[in-house]
C-alpha cells in the first residue's frame, strides 16, 4: 500500500517538475541570446579606441555626389571594370593582384599601388565638372603624405610586375593627402587630369590607364577591389555638368529671332473668344475625343479614351487651326 501511494505521488509530481524544467530552459535560452547579441568579437580589430557597434563615423560615411550634377561612380560591384595591384622593386617579377589590400611605401621593400578604371563609356561631348579618386586607408598609427600619379602605359591586374611596368607613370603628382591615425576614407581631385585625357582621346584613341599610389616614407596599405565591403573599394567619381542636346529642326533657339509658332490659346478660348458648348456640334466634339451623354451614362467600352461630361456648359479649347462649326 505504501509503495502504491509513493508511485502515485511520484507520478503527480512529475508534470510539475517537467513544467518547471521547461521554464528554466526558456529563461536560459533568452539570457543566452541576449548575451550573444551584446557580445562583440574584438579579436580582429586594430588597437585603439573603437566606437560602439552600429555607430557610423564621419570616415565611414559614403561620399555624397555633388548637387546639381549627374555623377557616375566607377567601382567594382557598382559600375564599370576596376583593377588594382601592388608591385615590388625587390621582387621585380612578383605580381600581387588578388589580395584584399594594396600597399605602397619606401620601407624595407619599395612598393607601388596601381589602380585602373575602364572609362570607355564616358562620352566625349560632355563636360566633366568634377572627378575624384577615392581610396580607403587601413589602420595606421602614423601620419604620412601619400601622392597620386597618372599611369602612362597599359597594364593587367594579374600580370603587372615591377619588371614589366618599369617607369610607366608620371613623376609629377596629380594630388596628395595625409594619412591619419586609425582608418578611413580619402579623396584626391583629378578633374584637370581627366579633362586633359578626355580631350586627347579622340585624336590618340587610347584608354585611361589609371593611377599610381606612392608613399615616400613608411609603407601604408589601402583596401583593394577584392575587399568584402563595397564602400571600402577604390572608386572614381565623375560628375558631368550636362549633355549636348541638338534642338529639333525648325526650333527657334535664339530668343531674339521672331517666332513662327502660333500663340497658344488660353483655356476656354478659341482665337481669343470664349467658347460655349451650344456653339459646338456633336461632330466637332467627337473630333476632340469628348463623349456627350446623359448625366449617368458610362463611357462605351469601345471608346475608353473619351470622357463623360455632365454639365451643359463647359469651356473647351480645340487645337489651334480647327475651323469653327457653323451656327
What would your notes on this structure say?
By secondary structure, the protein is an alpha+beta fold. The protein has two domains: 70-242, no CATH class; 266-327, no CATH class. 19% of the residues lie in helices and 26% in strands. The protein contains four helices and 16 strands. The chain has helices at 2-38, 162-165, 191-204, 282-287; strands spanning 70-74, 82-88, 95-96, 101-106, 110-117, 127-140, 145-150, 175-178, 182-189, 211-214, 220-223, 235-242, 269-270, 273-274, 290-292, 307-309. Strands 2, 3, 4, 5, 7, 8, 10 and 11 form an eight-stranded antiparallel beta sheet that branches. A four-stranded antiparallel beta sheet has the order 1-12-6-9, with helices on one face. Mean pLDDT is 72; it is low at 21-68, 243-261, 289-293 and 295-311. Residues 82-228 form the Carbohydrate-binding module family domain. Residues 31-69, 248-276, 292-327 are annotated as: Disordered. InterPro entries: CBM96 (IPR055372). It comes from Chondromyces crocatus.
Q: How is this structure best summarized?
A:
The protein is α+β, with helices and mostly antiparallel strands and 327 residues long.
Biggest sheet: strands, sense, closure?
8 strands, antiparallel
Order of helices and strands: HEEEEEEEHEEHEEEEEHEE
The level of helicity is: 10-25%
Gyration radius over CA: 37 Å
Parts with pLDDT < 50 across at least 5 consecutive residues: 21-68, 243-261, 289-293, 295-311
Q: Estimate the mean pLDDT confidence.
A: 72
Counted up, domains total 2
Count helical runs: 4
State the secondary-structure class: alpha+beta
Strand content: 25-35%
Distance between the termini: 119 Å
**Tell me, what's the shape?**
globular
Give the strand tally. Answer: 16
Amino acid at each position: 500500500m505504501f509503495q502504491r501511494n509513493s508511485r502515485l505521488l511520484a507520478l503527480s509530481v512529475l508534470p510539475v517538475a517537467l513544467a518547471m524544467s521547461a521554464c528554466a530552459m526558456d529563461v536560459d535560452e533568452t539570457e543566452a541570446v541576449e548575451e550573444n547579441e551584446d557580445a562583440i568579437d574584438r579579436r580582429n580589430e586594430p588597437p585603439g579606441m573603437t566606437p560602439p557597434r552600429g555607430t557610423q563615423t564621419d570616415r565611414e560615411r559614403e561620399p555624397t555626389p555633388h548637387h546639381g550634377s549627374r555623377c557616375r561612380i566607377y567601382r567594382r560591384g557598382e559600375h564599370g571594370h576596376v583593377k588594382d595591384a601592388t608591385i615590388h622593386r625587390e621582387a621585380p617579377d612578383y605580381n600581387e593582384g588578388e589580395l584584399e589590400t594594396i600597399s605602397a611605401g619606401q620601407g624595407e621593400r619599395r612598393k607601388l599601388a596601381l589602380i585602373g578604371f575602364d572609362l570607355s563609356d564616358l562620352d566625349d561631348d560632355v563636360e566633366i565638372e568634377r572627378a575624384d579618386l577615392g581610396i580607403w586607408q587601413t589602420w595606421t598609427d602614423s601620419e604620412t603624405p601619400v601622392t597620386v600619379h597618372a599611369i602612362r602605359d597599359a597594364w593587367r591586374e594579374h600580370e603587372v610586375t615591377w619588371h614589366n611596368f618599369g617607369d610607366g607613370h608620371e613623376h609629377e603628382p596629380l594630388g596628395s593627402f595625409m594619412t591619419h591615425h586609425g582608418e578611413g576614407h580619402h579623396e584626391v581631385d583629378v578633374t584637370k587630369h581627366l579633362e586633359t585625357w578626355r580631350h586627347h582621346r579622340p585624336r590618340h584613341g587610347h584608354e585611361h590607364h589609371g593611377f599610381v599610389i606612392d608613399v615616400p616614407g613608411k609603407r601604408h596599405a589601402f583596401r583593394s577591389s577584392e575587399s568584402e565591403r563595397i564602400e571600402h573599394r577604390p572608386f572614381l567619381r565623375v560628375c558631368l555638368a550636362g549633355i549636348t542636346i541638338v534642338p529639333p529642326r525648325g526650333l527657334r533657339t535664339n530668343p531674339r529671332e521672331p517666332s513662327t509658332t502660333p500663340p497658344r490659346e488660353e483655356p476656354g478660348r478659341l482665337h481669343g473668344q470664349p467658347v460655349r458648348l451650344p456653339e459646338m456640334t456633336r461632330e466637332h466634339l467627337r473630333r476632340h475625343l469628348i463623349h456627350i451623354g446623359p448625366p449617368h451614362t458610362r463611357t462605351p467600352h469601345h471608346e475608353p479614351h473619351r470622357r463623360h461630361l455632365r454639365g451643359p456648359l463647359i469651356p473647351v479649347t480645340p487645337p489651334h487651326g480647327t475651323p469653327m462649326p457653323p451656327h
